[in-house]
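From the shared-data thread, chain only:
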Amino acid sequence: MKDLKILIGKNIIYNMENWDKIVHVQSSLEPRAGQYAMFVGRWQPLHKGHQELFKQAMDEGKNVLICIRDGQPNAKNPFTAEEVLDNITNFYSEEVKEGKVKVMVIPDICSVEFGRGVGYDIIERIPPTEIGEISATKIRQEMGL
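Structure, as tokens:
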């Protein structure tokens, strides 16, 4: 497995107070204990922007389900889904043990679609500039990938 430790340090501090949140669809059902906020992505590699995205949901008291798209490795996706799974699971090991975070590989997808009355919110989280400027492409280049 490629060494990803340089990318996931928990000691970098950003001002996270300026995230915007747009609720595109609001559930007609009340949230229940034990439910998860689901995030789907490649996470190639997991970086501070992703971590802060998940933290936004956790700070609202939500559990987090991180879904890793199972695509073929290529220049933009140099890590296998299993490598990403290990990386994220190791990073969130305490939260995984506590049941606050679950990580899984899902088939590669082309869209996220839903019908009416889906029973959950669909939320877009918009990062502050300093987080939005974090680039996985630049991080991969710095890694020599």
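The chain has a mean pLDDT of 85.
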